[in-house]
Each structure stands twice: as structure tokens, then as C-alpha cells.
Amino acid sequence: MKRCMFIDDSSVIRKVAKRILGGSDMLVIEAASGFDAVEMCTADMPDIIVVDGALPDLQAEDVIRRIRAMESPIQPQILISLVEVDVASIMRAKRAGAQGYLLKPFNRPQLLECFRTLRIAA
């Protein structure tokens, strides 16, 4: 079973993602802050991580860098989640180790297509 972590200070975004992705082949884990997410990844690294581009405690690139610096047999695929296409934020996230981005708010078809693309790239 694949494990996906959604890091977002919005409980609505986390719940929607969990409702869309949660099922027999995907376990969705929620983190409300960058610090919580880093701590959770230290204990148990997920396969896919979606990081909010506007976290209140850490910048998304810092979260990505901290996760990438961890020693783990799992090298997660990481996406930054943004409310609009911001090329500078996307490039900073990619330099930190992200594979791509996801626009929010998202709907079921958009999120599922994004995750299908991740599986192909894996």
C-alpha cells in the first residue's frame, strides 16, 4: 500500500485529498505544519508528499530540503501545492528536490491524473 502525506494548514484541503485518494491502495496521512511533517517523516517516510506552498511555520522549500536530507530507504516523490502557477516558487521547490506541482483547489479528476503521472514517473 502506498502512503501519501498531505502537508497543508487547511484542514479542508487535507480532508478533500484524503477523501479522493484514500482507499484500498493509498493511505493518506495529514500534517498541519511543516515541523509536524518533518517529524512524521523522520519516524516513517511516506511514498508521496504534497507540500503546501504557503505553510505558516516553514517555507515549502525548507520542508522539502529537510525531507531530502533524511536517510531513508524510501525516496518520496514530492509535489508543491500552489493556488496559482508561480514559476519562481515551482523552480525553488524543484531545486530543493520536488518533482512537480499541484494547483489547488483541485477536484477528483485533477488529483487522480496528477497521481497517475507520478506513478508513471516512479
UniProtKB/TrEMBL annotation:
For the biological process aspect of GO, one term held by this record is: phosphorelay signal transduction system
Q: Which residues carry this modification: 4-aspartylphosphate?
A: D52
Positions of the Response regulatory domain? 3-119
Residues in the signal sequence: none
Record bears the keyword Repeat: no
Q: Which UniProt keywords apply?
A: Phosphoprotein, Transcription, Transcription regulation
List the Pfam families.
Response_reg
* PROSITE patterns from the UniProt entry: RESPONSE_REGULATORY (PS50110)
Biological source species: Mesorhizobium delmotii
- What name does UniProt use for this protein? Two-component response regulator
